[in-house]
Amino acid sequence: xxxxxxxxxxxxxxxxxxxxxxxxxxxxxxxxxxxxxxxxxxxxxxxxxxxxxxxxxxxxxxxxxxxxxxxxxxxxxxxxxxxxxxxxxxxxxxxxxxxxxxxxxxxxxxxxxxxxxxxxxxxxxxxxxxxxxxxxxxxxxxxxxxxxxxxxxxxxxxxxxxxxxxxxxxxxxxxxxxxxxxxxxxxxxxxxxxxxxxxxxxxxxxxxxxxxxxxxxxxxxxxxxxxxxxxxxxxxxxxxxxxxxxxxxxxxxxxxxxxxxxxxxxxxxxxxxxxxxxxxxxxxxxxxxxxxxxxxxxxxxxxxxxxxxxxxxxxxxxxxxxxxxxxxxxxxxxxxxxxxxxxxxxxxxxxxxxxxxxxxxxxxxxxxxxxxxxxxxxxxxxxxxxxxxxxxxxxxxxxxxxxxxxxxxxxxxxxx
Length: 416
Description:
416 residues, mainly beta, Immunoglobulin-like, five-stranded mixed β-sheet, 30 strands
């Protein structure tokens, strides 16, 4: 390779490395129930207060007691790689084996349950706030999956309120988010350039609104009162089922069978797009692992084939329909794609899930995996949704984006 060819290679390659947005890698079929722990029984969107413990858990269903290793990288607000080297954002080192695991007990499906806690003896501390990705590798050095997480500092107050859309064309379908950032004495220099907000609906990073600049300032406070720029479709309440006792039909489960594993057949759902909105409580797409008879749900909750069923109609019978929820990180994959049966005029899909309580909905995806959540479920401004807001700040001359504040809101008390 000539010097000129080498220099051209470097020039062409560096921008791709620096500016390409990194996306999460979904696990293979034998890795299930990837869960960031938190202060509730539900799986958590990993937004963690700076200095708190980070805990990742997952199951490997191949029965091999494989070794897994982890690496951690720091990212900018837009999930492009930051320029920080490891010693600048980490005290200690990574690329270590996950040492804590247990094998399943008294289950039909054999699996090993792995748990990674940070800080630990090797990775003693993450030194800065911001966006991170946790990469999990196998013993051959191949990437198995990755998950994003965020560390925030409690430096500014973040008020979040949910309003109806102002646009008359979508007033029945959308919700908008208003934000007030109280600086609390922190000097935010040139906030229109240095401060950015990200808004996340129902813990789904795939639909987050990012890079929102303040609309105006009020004294030292920053105000976001946009209309369309911070609007989300309201969606509808999630369907749910509960199989904490796999031996009997429970909420949402029509009947059961036992073959090699238990099979739970859910009641057939129907489109709600053209029905009036009806409220019923849900956990906004999330799930809780639970076995009624277990003393340790991590290793005693079994895996069950859950059979989903959706009655088709002309609006989507010729489209690609997926089961959608936090159970697989809102990913559109082959394992969630439903099959259409013309004789029964319904879609169906069996998915292997750890027993517990699950929320789900049905969505339509185009060939580019662009998702239409409303075609089957409908969009209603009254829908109860949760919202999380992250405030990013890069000081003048700084080399990375801090997260200086975190706020939450809910549309249960939505106002005009």
